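hey all, quick one before standup. I had two proteins in the batch that finished overnight and I want to keep them in one place so we stop losing track of which output belongs to which input. First protein below, input sequence then structure tokens straight from the run.
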Amino acid sequence: MTSLDALAQDIARRELATPCLKPDNEARIVFADGVPHERQPLAVVYVHGFTASQAEGDPAHRALASACGAHLYANRLHDHGTDAPMAMAGASPQAWRDDADAALRIGLELGERVVLVATSMGGSLALDLAAEHPDKVAALIAWSPGIRVFDEEQLRAATLLEGPVIPPGDRSAYQRQYWSSVVHSDAYRAIARLFVERMQPEHLAKVACPVLVGAWDGGAGDSDTLTSVAAMREAFTWLGTPASARQFIAYDHAAHVLANPNRSPAAGRVLADALGFLAMHGLGEAPIGHRSKRLGLT
């Protein structure tokens, strides 16, 4: 058994001991097929979004890791993965940032540098990591990153609530399995603070690695209604990454959870573009037949 096997077992034991954790919501290490369970030049770390779990990025995060010949660490943010009504009581931006920092540290045990892959609020945390640790992050793929919410009034109203809240709208069995069906109001206050405190020009200017931002933006009636695409586009201009090393790709007929085929009709296109992006920067193999020539917006 290698030290990484022991690390994977420790993570599995810790997750198994988490009260009320829903099946398959656990954080986990996924070792690359045919690759020794030893530290590699690259690792991939997936950071999921608000109320979500590792399945949000599945199977794209596995495919990206495979293309890089890298081991994958799929994290679980503080008090996510459960429908316990009080699970997110006391949620804070710092607790989630600490979780993201811990995920990066695990990634650095798996690889000398890390490719961060993230969705929604996970994209916010990944941008924060890339700004704080520019020498450790080889590249960042951020799908629907949270810079600001689409409906500020709706979030403001949510921050005034107290106690457990059942989000509006019907949820499929798949969503109930992998996303929280009950959210404590503290979590709404925490995500509002995270955006305001960390998603700022002077901070994101410290991001230096190659960055791919993907957004659901197909025009009126066909765009993201959870996170603000306008804010994503603005934040993209704040990055310190050279123009030649950043891409912003807008997808039509998609969904907020861009890369998950159970949620997004555009998932295949999204994965192909991400694989092409990594190959362009010498970090992975391009998908067969991928001919994307979309240009980065500066």
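OK second protein, same deal, sequence then tokens:
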Amino acid sequence: MTNKLDAILDFIVLDDEQNPVLNEQGLPTLLQGPVGAKNIPELIAKGKIGNLALFAELESKTEQWQWASAYYNYLVELNEVEQYNANLPAPVAKEDGSITEAEPKPLPTAPERPVLRTVDEVLEPYKVTIFKLERQSQIDNAIVEISTGKKFDADELSITRLANALIKHWQLDESGIIPWSTADVATGVMVPCTKAEIIEAHSLATDHFATVWNIE
């Protein structure tokens, strides 16, 4: 039994000399499995991609631990079968002279260990979706800083608002003031900005949008 434990040494309790700690049945104690695993497809469907690498690593470790748990159950069953087969009842002679012998139980089959997957391999089926979400996130959270040091939100809605402000104030000269809630003040606080600053912010925001989307 002991040599069969080599396969799961990384998943069981070891003593100070790195030997398996066995119970009376000669079986080890499994270490606690990974905690905090998440449903990756569900996270992606909700657009929650911030910690995907961490959860992909946890999923890979969980797959390995689930195999170790199945292998442990195999060892338990193997131990029971071997004990049963080693203590089969003696053959029984019937009145007609025939002999009934107890049949040994077949030995269980050890579960095959899955290949240890990398983070990239776990996330491979979702690569395109993740790319699109990351690209959208770059746009949704974009902020540009103009030459005067003011910062402006540069998401798609903000780009539209900047454009609308310029259309509305098309007759205003570039030094004219357009109140704007910039990205470097509290929400709703209006900052006096010149039309030139709004033009520059809109230009930088659209340039960033084009860069993220690879628009020539």
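Flagging for whoever picks this up: The mean pLDDT is 92. The radius of gyration is 33 Å.
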